[in-house]
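User: Good morning. I'm curious how uridine-5'-diphosphate-glucuronic acid would be positioned relative to this chain. Could you predict the structure with it bound?
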Amino acid sequence: MAPAEHATRRHITVLGTGYLGTAHAVCLAEMGFEVLGVDVDPARVKVLAQGELPFYEPGLEPLLQAGLRSGRLAFSTSYADAAAFGDVHFVCVGTPQREASYAADLSQVDGCVDALGPLLDRPCLVIGKSTVPVGTAEILAARLARMAPAGSACELAWNPEFLREGHAVQDTLRPDRIVAGVRSARAEAVLREVYADPIAAGTPFLVTDLATAELVKVAANAFLATKISFINAMAEVCEVAHADVTMLSEALGHDPRIGSAAMHPGLGFGGGCLPKDIRAFMARAEELGVEPALSFLREVDNINLRRRARMVDLARELAGGSFDGRTVGVLGIAFKPDSDDIRDSPALDVAATIQGLGASVTVYDPAAVRHARRAHPELTYAGTAIEAVTGADVTLLLTEWREFREADPEELGQAVAHRNIVDGRNALDAARWRAASWHYRALGVGAGATSGTPAG
Ligand code: UGA
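Assistant: Good morning! Here's the predicted structure, ligand included:
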């Protein structure tokens, strides 16, 4: 993109520099826009302005630094700066689960709109990206029109985000679809301008009403969670039927109507999105009087949580029936690989439960140790995989980082007290580990061959 073209590009603000907001701000600057990222947390703004990412995301930090160097990307804590700077404002703040219910906590979205609205004194488009219960955008649009000095010249659109942690750059620069929930041709035109590059590269651009746009997001996450729990329900059956869920999944995936994505069996889903989104969706369905339509999601959630309990049982079995006095080495603590996110991490849940049941648990993760240590100081943290499994009676693979998938079973075998491993992510080559005399068990695979010696 030539500098002359940059000069004509819009000024965009991104409100909220969490995971989604930071990736969005950085990628918009990469596309050539003038971007101001705004967050109420001064420490976060300071770190970002220095070119450091406050979280782990492959490939994002170099783009952050390039954006800052180019002068097209800056950060601020001031909503007055945001209103003065931008004619397009993206709302990217968090919508976590409420403390005492399944519903989404919208206080950050409300706070953002309430802070920005009274400052909007010229025509602009506010674009919601946060994941919200259907119907939220309609309410916010009315509130914004009431509050903004520019009145109805200040419009609201909804443009949900589908990025996956670990793939943020690719998913933002080349999304697989763009959904534009709009109420006017003007709003649609602005969104087409913002996403001109991916549209030119062939990304489908779907224009909808506000409610449909909100629903696309939660429906997509509900479908993904359902697929994961479906294959994990099959895993439960495989375990008692002495079948192999990994082969089952592979065979099912060849049917193009089913597909192999989100069909990897194991410890199940966690993170800051899927679990809270399906719960908020159920809560919203209840409010709308269509609770039965989504009651299956309760079972999706239950299947998912049962995998964690099963993992604990398998580990106990390999520990000789009790965790008392046992040493357990844990590989992986993030909710998924290539992330340092431990929000609702199945791995961390399992590790903490086993420690609570009397074992001495030592954990290693390539990125998430810092966060995990703060949340669970009772666990022991190691600097390497070898250190984590040294003296272990049982080893657990809980997050399938590449480093663990490619680990040498002989090298790890030298360090442990007993060669017992539970592969919680069906990520290891079972034959290779068994050949190295490990007693290898996996979620969703009937007991089968057992070549190691249970501790005790
Ligand atoms: C998810 C969605 O995939 C994104 O499309 C969405 O934008 C995002 O939530 C969001 O709402 O912001 P993410 O949470 O980054 O993205 O993670 P996923 O890659 O979907 O994985 C979610 C969880 O499911 C992880 O714990 C992962 O280990 C697990 N998983 C995933 C499985 O157990 N099996 C699978 O086959 C796939």
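Residues 1-7, 449-456 have pLDDT under 50 and may be disordered. The two ends are 65 Å apart (CA to CA).
Let me know if you'd like a different ligand tried.
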